[in-house]
Amino acid sequence: MENAHLLSSGLGFLLGLLLCGGLSLVWVSRIRSTHADAIQKISVEHRERTESQIEKMRSRLELEFEKRKLELDHQVSEQRLELKSKEEELASTKSQVENELAVAEKRRLELDERVDEVGQRENHSRALAEKYRSALQEISKVSESEARSRMIEEVHRDCEAELRVMKGEMLQRSEKEVEAEARRILIDSMQRLSAAPHVDITATIVSIPSEDMKGRIIGREGRNIKSFESLTGTTLLIDETPDSVLVSSFDPVRREIARIALESLIRDGRIHPTSIEEAVNKAEDDVKRSVQESGEDALRRLKLGRMHPEVLKLVGKLRFRLSYNQNALEHSIEVANLCALMAAELGLDPQLAKRCGLLHDIGKALDQDNEGSHAVAGSYFLKRYGEEDSRVINAVGAHHGEVESESPYVALVMIADSLSAMRPGARSESVDGYIQRVRNLEEIARSMDGIVEAYAIQAGREVRVIVSPDQVSEANAPLIARQIRRRIEDELQYPGMIKVTVIREQRFQEVAK
User: Fold this and answer.
1) Residue 499: φ, ψ to 5°
2) Is there a contact between 249 and 229 (Cβ–Cβ < 8 Å)?
3) Which whole number is the average pLDDT over 185-190?
4) Residue-level pLDDT at 470
């Protein structure tokens, strides 16, 4: 039983398996069929969708292509029009150039013909000139070289006036340029220099405390005043003014010694020949010491090197020298500073220029034993006492034009000397001397031929001369001015410079009735 039961169970199991396998096969076949249908349906839809997209893309690309084609066609047409315009312009330019070349060729041919014609005429003219020259030589019996010389002389005479005018214009133009540059340098130099406006004049009037002191100065029978005058070489004027004594002498050094000695005697109160001699000796020592100190002070102020003691003493003596009441030492220091400033502007040695300026008037401190003008005597003195630089010696000797100039420092000294002398308040002169100088200026100007009138103006620093236009030509007017200037330089003594102006004018007048 048990076996039968197991067999039936096994058969049932096998039948179940067979039944399940059959059902599975049916289901698998159905699933495969459904899957194939789905795949086919999907592929059809995908193909339709793809074909639609492709069609749309093709339409868009065709539209873009047509649009781009139209743009390119438009650009090509514009470029063709532009090229056509340029071709027409080039053709026009080519035609114009060809026309100009034709005209130039025509002109060249004409010029060649004219050159040939001119050459023929030139040859003909030369032949005629040679023929006429030969005929003139036969008629005049004058050689060609002699005739040329005469012709040159005649042309020179005809053109002399024009050449003089041209020369004057050229010189005037160059003088204006030089004058402008010189004025700039002078103004720059003067603006940097601070000059003392006052004039240091050595006093010659000595005050006394009472009229009784005059009697003591005179002494019994005048022995005191005689002793004083003989020792000092001066003259005492006692009765001229009250409460003062005037010391008179042409030598400023002696006058200074007398002033110091007299003031010392008045302070002491004891006046007799012995005390006078002691006071004079002491005053001489004081003046010598003052001279030495003045020279050393000048060197310190100008920052110059050492000098020979005798030269230094002479520089100090300039303190007691006057030129038109201008102190010579202060004038020399001022000239030295101006020379240095101008030398710096011109690229020269300022120290050498200072030395030339300080020593330029050293001859004014020499006595009568040294012959010649103060410039020449000063140069000899410097040479004798071993001045090392020859340019300094030449500048001292040549600053008034008496010696030939050898360096530009001479011109610096001459200019600085004139500037220092001409500045306002630098120099003064007496009324009588001024009137006489003005008269002399006018007399010199009136003594020339063709002068109508002459006037001295600007305090005698300028003379204006009016000439007759009938007697003096325009070319001769500058010559008259130059002659007047030379006579003034040779015959007159004057501070600074004098300007000479010659005026020549013509006036034409008619009266209508």
Assistant:
1) -95, 135
2) no
3) 61
4) 84
Of 494, 488, 490, 489, nearest in space to 459 by CA: 494
User: Could you tell me the two tokens for 394?
Assistant: 């030449």
DSSP letter for each residue of 331-376 = HHHHHHHHHHHHHHHHTS-HHHHHHHHHHTTGGGGS-TTS-S-HHH
pLDDT at residue 255 in the model: 83
Tell me the sheet residues that pair with 463: 456, 500
Q: Which helix (H) or strand (E) holds 327?
A: strand 326-327
In the block, tokens 């101008």 appear at 342
Q: For residue 387, give both structure tokens.
A: 């001045």
For residue 171, how many C-alpha atoms fall within 13 Å in the half-sphere facing its CB?
Answer: 7
* pLDDT tens string 202-222: 446 777 877 778 788 888 888
Q: Please write down the long-range contacts of 369-375, taking CB distance under 8 Å and 24 or more positions apart.
A: 373/400, 373/402, 375/399, 375/400, 375/402, 375/403
* Residue 306: pLDDT band with limits 50, 70, 90: confident
Q: What's the alpha-carbon Rg for the chain, to the nearest Å? A: 59
Domains of the chain plus CATH, in order, are 331-428 (1.10.3210.10), 431-503 (3.30.300.20)
pLDDT at position 369, please?
67
Parallel/antiparallel/unpaired status of strands 244-248 and 205-207: antiparallel
Give the pLDDT confidence score for residue 76 in this predicted structure: 92
CA-nearest of 188, 503, 490 to 338 is 188
Question: Max Cα separation, the chain?
Answer: 214
| Cα distance between residue 96 and residue 254, in whole Å | 103
pLDDT digits (tens, 9 = 90+) for 32-62: 777 777 787 787 778 888 888 888 888 888 8
Question: Which string of DSSP letters, residue by residue, matches 231-254?
Answer: HHT-EEE-SSSTTEEEEE-S-HHH
For the chain, what is the mean pLDDT?
79
Sign, Cα dihedral of 163, 169, 171, 174: negative
Q: What values do phi and psi take at 13, rounded to 5?
A: -70, -40
Q: How large is the average pLDDT for residues 109-135?
A: 86
What distance in Å separates the CA atoms of residue 159 and residue 126, rounded to the nearest whole number? 27
Residue with tokens 């000139």: 129
Compute CA 238 distance to the chain's CA centroid, rounded to the nearest angstrom: 58
